[in-house]
Every structure is written in structure tokens, then in C-alpha cells.
Design brief:
Elements lengths: L1 H12 L19 H28 L4 H8 L5 H10 L3 E8 L2 E6 L5
Antiparallel strand pairs: 1-2
Helix pairs in contact: 1-2, 2-3, 2-4
Length: about 110
């Protein structure tokens, strides 16, 4: 799959100890225990998806979530991961729109 190549590329430039691979909170403190269990199971997939989205932004430049999904052959996914990447300081909206969607850019990695 093409996304596997993007994940490999992202891993090469972002070691696993960077926030890209850090678990994100996917359940609220008030959620039932089953929600927290589901969030734990989903964490590895979410970090891999963040890596793929970031790799695509770095490879192709500024894109909308739809354009990212298209390049990864995903039905959806980038739309959820872009705000997570923004919170991690790895991506941000450019302020532009294309086809009614925000355009996103990868942030430069901190030295």
C-alpha cells in the first residue's frame, strides 16, 4: 500500500520518541471504561495515520484534507489527523482555502 511507504518515510524523519508518535487522548475522563479501552486500541493506528499525513504534506507541499486522502487512497482520515498534528506543532492551516477546504502545511521540525 502507498500509505505504508509514507509511514516509512515519516518514520525515517521523525523518530518514535517525537510527539508524532505520542498517544493522544481519545476519550474524556467522564467516558465509560470501554471508551478508554477502545482509545488505547486505536492509538497505534492514529499515530501511523498522523505519520502518513505528515509525510504527504512534506512530500507534496500544501494540501487540503481531501487532497491528502486522495494521495493516500483513503476514504477519510486526514481530516481527523490534521488538528492533532496542529496541536503537536507539526502542521498548521495556511489561511487559504481550496474547494471549500482549508489548506494545510507541514511545520519545520524543531532542531
Amino acid at each position: 500500500r502507498e500509505w505504508a511507504a509514507h509511514r516509512a518515510a515519516a518514520t525515517a524523519v521523525a523518530p518514535p520518541d517525537l510527539p508524532l508518535f505520542a498517544p493522544s487522548t481519545r476519550a474524556r475522563a467522564s467516558d465509560p471504561v470501554t471508551s478508554h479501552q477502545a482509545a488505547e486500541r486505536a492509538a497505534p493506528a492514529a499515530s501511523g495515520q498522523r505519520a502518513c499525513v505528515l509525510a504527504v504534506l512534506r512530500q507534496y507541499g500544501d494540501l487540503t484534507y481531501r487532497e491528502i486522502d486522495q494521495r493516500l487512497n483513503w476514504h477519510t482520515g486526514a481530516q481527523r489527523r490534521l488538528p492533532e498534528l496542529e496541536r503537536l506543532g507539526l502542521a498548521r492551516p495556511t489561511g487559504d482555502e481550496r474547494d471549500g477546504c482549508r489548506v494545510w502545511t507541514a511545520m519545520e521540525a524543531a532542531a
